[in-house]
């Protein structure tokens, strides 16, 4: 046949500009695309040869070869796969024009979200990524089982040329004529070290050997040999029984650049609607940047052993963002860039499967190795608790069995299920107390009546804890109850009656204290919850706790946005109350300073800062001096 020149559609120049500058983030991925295409070509030949052995032409030594010449400024990538005939050249390397470049550009420009991209697999532009580094591309190819071979050539602008050639072996050889670019030099892609680096980074686990032509010196003699760059057998494709714990750990350390072995690994192989393999790791400790804006969640993504993406966020929810690892599946739907996955049902289904597997493994760890689970919890428990209340509690039922807390039962942490199993018959609620310091929580005056009843109390000593508990609302039918709420309701009818009578008898004193603190508290009342302590603050029924107020106070611009209702409770059996009654009977006006001291004392116990510490100190000093006279 005579040489023929075919025109791209008029939009091709603009389209290729879009491919080069908009779709692909890094130029270096051109090599990944071409190697991936070569691997696909071999896959196709292997599949077709099952029913037609003649296609193999006596050659079953499948391989991909790369050769670079710095003098000629060319890179060659060849394979002995299926190859292409004339019509396939036009179709496969003219896919952009054939599929309609206007429709392609419109889809690219109008799509604002990944999920809007309905052009997966329609435009085959991976090959064209090579124009990011090449001023001209030449393709020599012969389809297996056919005699004629062809050459395709283009500078990526307006036309491409197809000519018939002689080619002995089946397969495809692509020659890139590297573009001179002073601002963004491409010469590094001709260097042996760079090719090694890119193959190791992107294509280390392609199942066929990727051989690089290198020079080997033997004395004065120099010869060219082919050196295999990729490992080909990824650890995640091996059977679990064939991989040692040490091998899993070494892979993790080298692959994810950690300095110590992981806490655990999760090796998954699934065959079903979606076939995939995953190798996941939970680090031993929190990464240094974990709570910074620079940290990115996500799993590495491979398809047919070819690296596609470093951080696929869709595969792990935020509460499992600490999980590192990779997923490999031939069933992924990839978009034109191979760098952004379409959020289709397949991907969502895969993400849910992985999430369930991680959850099950953590539940098993909690059940079978409590010590190891507590190491995990110390590092990442905050994320699990945040997952309870994130997304309006969407994940709370899945995560609630992973929660563990300190409690009054023992020095060991407890699950909610274990707590409920120890509840007495008369206990209707799960009691908790919130604060930042564990030792201070154990001494909280509000704890006294609950402990006297023999009820276990959970210690919520992280700021996210109460948000998680309030989102759960209940566990196993038992509602949660803070011991610092005003309506604790632990008294029997006789105790309530005695308390009401005492409040009536001391109404003037209580009113005097409330008048003195009218801008600070909503109510003063007597209480049975205190046994050895004289006074405490409790929150009202507006749903805002003291811990919530503290959290909101630390948010810039929200310092006064949320306030808990403050109720001052006084122990009528305490000697201090008797002293207050005596003082009030003698000098009602003096109750103002005593009331202020009581209130500030209760504030300190709750962990609040005093409005005026100097004034508080002076009042105590003056009262001590007065008492000594």
UniProtKB/TrEMBL annotation:
<dbReference type="InterPro" id="IPR020568">
    <property type="entry name" value="Ribosomal_Su5_D2-typ_SF"/>
</dbReference>
<dbReference type="InterPro" id="IPR003594">
    <property type="entry name" value="HATPase_dom"/>
</dbReference>
<comment type="function">
    <text>Molecular chaperone. Has ATPase activity.</text>
</comment>
<protein>
    <recommendedName>
        <fullName>Chaperone protein HtpG</fullName>
    </recommendedName>
</protein>
<dbReference type="GO" id="GO:0140662">
    <property type="term" value="F:ATP-dependent protein folding chaperone"/>
</dbReference>
<dbReference type="GO" id="GO:0016887">
    <property type="term" value="F:ATP hydrolysis activity"/>
</dbReference>
<feature type="binding site">
    <location>
        <position position="79"/>
    </location>
    <ligand>
        <name>ATP</name>
    </ligand>
</feature>
<comment type="similarity">
    <text>Belongs to the heat shock protein 90 family.</text>
</comment>
<dbReference type="InterPro" id="IPR036890">
    <property type="entry name" value="HATPase_C_sf"/>
</dbReference>
<feature type="binding site">
    <location>
        <position position="338"/>
    </location>
    <ligand>
        <name>ATP</name>
    </ligand>
</feature>
<comment type="subunit">
    <text>Homodimer.</text>
</comment>
<dbReference type="GO" id="GO:0005737">
    <property type="term" value="C:cytoplasm"/>
</dbReference>
<keyword id="KW-0547">Nucleotide-binding</keyword>
<feature type="binding site">
    <location>
        <position position="92"/>
    </location>
    <ligand>
        <name>ATP</name>
    </ligand>
</feature>
<keyword id="KW-0143">Chaperone</keyword>
<feature type="binding site">
    <location>
        <position position="172"/>
    </location>
    <ligand>
        <name>ATP</name>
    </ligand>
</feature>
<feature type="binding site">
    <location>
        <begin position="99"/>
        <end position="100"/>
    </location>
    <ligand>
        <name>ATP</name>
    </ligand>
</feature>
<keyword id="KW-0346">Stress response</keyword>
<dbReference type="GO" id="GO:0051082">
    <property type="term" value="F:unfolded protein binding"/>
</dbReference>
<keyword id="KW-0067">ATP-binding</keyword>
<feature type="binding site">
    <location>
        <position position="33"/>
    </location>
    <ligand>
        <name>ATP</name>
    </ligand>
</feature>
<dbReference type="InterPro" id="IPR001404">
    <property type="entry name" value="Hsp90_fam"/>
</dbReference>
<feature type="region of interest" description="C">
    <location>
        <begin position="551"/>
        <end position="629"/>
    </location>
</feature>
<dbReference type="InterPro" id="IPR019805">
    <property type="entry name" value="Heat_shock_protein_90_CS"/>
</dbReference>
<feature type="region of interest" description="A; substrate-binding">
    <location>
        <begin position="1"/>
        <end position="338"/>
    </location>
</feature>
<feature type="binding site">
    <location>
        <position position="98"/>
    </location>
    <ligand>
        <name>ATP</name>
    </ligand>
</feature>
<feature type="binding site">
    <location>
        <position position="84"/>
    </location>
    <ligand>
        <name>ATP</name>
    </ligand>
</feature>
<dbReference type="InterPro" id="IPR020575">
    <property type="entry name" value="Hsp90_N"/>
</dbReference>
<dbReference type="GO" id="GO:0005524">
    <property type="term" value="F:ATP binding"/>
</dbReference>
<feature type="binding site">
    <location>
        <begin position="122"/>
        <end position="127"/>
    </location>
    <ligand>
        <name>ATP</name>
    </ligand>
</feature>
<keyword id="KW-0963">Cytoplasm</keyword>
<feature type="binding site">
    <location>
        <position position="37"/>
    </location>
    <ligand>
        <name>ATP</name>
    </ligand>
</feature>
<dbReference type="Pfam" id="PF13589">
    <property type="entry name" value="HATPase_c_3"/>
</dbReference>
<dbReference type="InterPro" id="IPR037196">
    <property type="entry name" value="HSP90_C"/>
</dbReference>
<feature type="domain" description="Histidine kinase/HSP90-like ATPase">
    <location>
        <begin position="26"/>
        <end position="182"/>
    </location>
</feature>
<dbReference type="Pfam" id="PF00183">
    <property type="entry name" value="HSP90"/>
</dbReference>
């Amino acid at each position: 046949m005579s040489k023929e020149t075919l025109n791209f559609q008029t939009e091709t120049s603009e389209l290729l500009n879009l491919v080069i500058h908009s779709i692909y983030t890094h130029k270096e991925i051109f090599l990944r695309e071409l190697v991936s295409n070569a691997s696909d070509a071999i896959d196709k030949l292997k599949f077709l040869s099952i029913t037609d052995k003649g296609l193999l032409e006596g050659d079953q030594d499948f391989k991909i070869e790369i050769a670079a010449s710095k003098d000629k400024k060319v890179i060659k990538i060849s394979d002995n796969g299926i190859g292409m005939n004339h019509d396939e050249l036009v179709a496969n390397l003219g896919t952009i024009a054939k599929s309609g470049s206007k429709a392609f550009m419109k889809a690219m420009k109008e799509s604002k979200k990944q999920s809007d991209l309905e052009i997966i697999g329609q435009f085959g532009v991976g090959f064209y990524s090579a124009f990011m580094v090449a001023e001209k591309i030449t393709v020599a190819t012969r389809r297996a089982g056919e005699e004629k071979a062809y050459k395709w050539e283009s500078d990526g602008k307006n036309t491409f040329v197809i000519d018939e050639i002689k080619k002995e072996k089946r397969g495809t050889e692509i020659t890139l004529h590297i573009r001179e670019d002073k601002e963004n030099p491409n010469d590094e892609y001709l260097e042996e070290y760079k090719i090694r680096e890119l193959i190791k980074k992107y294509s280390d686990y392609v199942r066929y050997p990727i051989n690089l032509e290198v020079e080997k010196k033997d004395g004065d003699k120099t010869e060219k040999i082919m050196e295999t760059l990729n490992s080909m057998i990824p650890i995640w494709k091996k059977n679990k029984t064939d991989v040692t714990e040490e091998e899993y750990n070494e892979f993790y350390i080298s692959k994810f650049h950690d300095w110590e072995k992981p806490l655990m690994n999760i090796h998954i192989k699934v065959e079903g609607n979606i076939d995939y393999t995953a190798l996941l790791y939970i680090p031993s400790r929190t990464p240094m940047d974990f709570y910074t804006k620079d940290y990115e969640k996500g799993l590495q993504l491979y398809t047919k052993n070819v690296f596609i993406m470093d951080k696929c966020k869709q595969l792990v929810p935020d509460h499992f963002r600490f999980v590192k690892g990779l997923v490999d599946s031939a069933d992924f739907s990839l978009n034109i860039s191979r760098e952004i996955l379409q959020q289709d049902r397949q991907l969502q289904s895969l993400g849910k499967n992985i999430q369930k597997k991680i959850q099950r493994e953590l539940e098993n760890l909690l059940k079978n190795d409590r010590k190891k689970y507590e190491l995990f919890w110390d590092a990442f428990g905050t994320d699990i608790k945040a997952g309870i209340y994130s997304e309006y509690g969407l994940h709370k039922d899945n995560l609630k069995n992973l929660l563990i807390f300190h409690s009054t039962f023992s020095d060991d942490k407890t699950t909610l299920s274990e707590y409920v199993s120890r509840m007495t018959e008369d206990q209707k609620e799960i009691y908790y107390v919130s604060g930042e310091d564990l030792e201070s929580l154990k001494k909280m005056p509000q704890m006294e009546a609950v402990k006297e009843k023999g009820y276990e109390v959970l210690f919520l000593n992280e700021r996210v804890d109460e948000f998680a508990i309030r989102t759960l609302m209940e566990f196993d039918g038992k509602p949660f109850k803070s011991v610092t709420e005003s309506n604790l309701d632990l008294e029997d009818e006789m105790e309530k009656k005695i308390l009401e009578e005492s409040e009536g008898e001391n109404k003037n004193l209580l009113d005097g204290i409330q008048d003195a603190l009218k801008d600070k508290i909503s109510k003063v009342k007597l209480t049975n919850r205190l046994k050895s302590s004289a006074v405490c603050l409790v929150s009202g029924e507006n749903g805002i706790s003291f811990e919530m107020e503290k959290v909101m106070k630390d948010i810039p611009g929200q310092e006064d946005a949320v306030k808990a209702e403050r109720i001052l409770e006084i122990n009528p059996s305490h000697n201090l109350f008797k002293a207050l009654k005596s003082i009030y009977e003698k000098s009602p006006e003096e109750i103002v300073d005593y009331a202020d001291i009581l209130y500030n004392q209760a504030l300190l116990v709750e962990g609040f800062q005093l409005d005026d510490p100097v004034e508080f100190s002076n009042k105590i000093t003056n009262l001590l001096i007065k008492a000594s006279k």
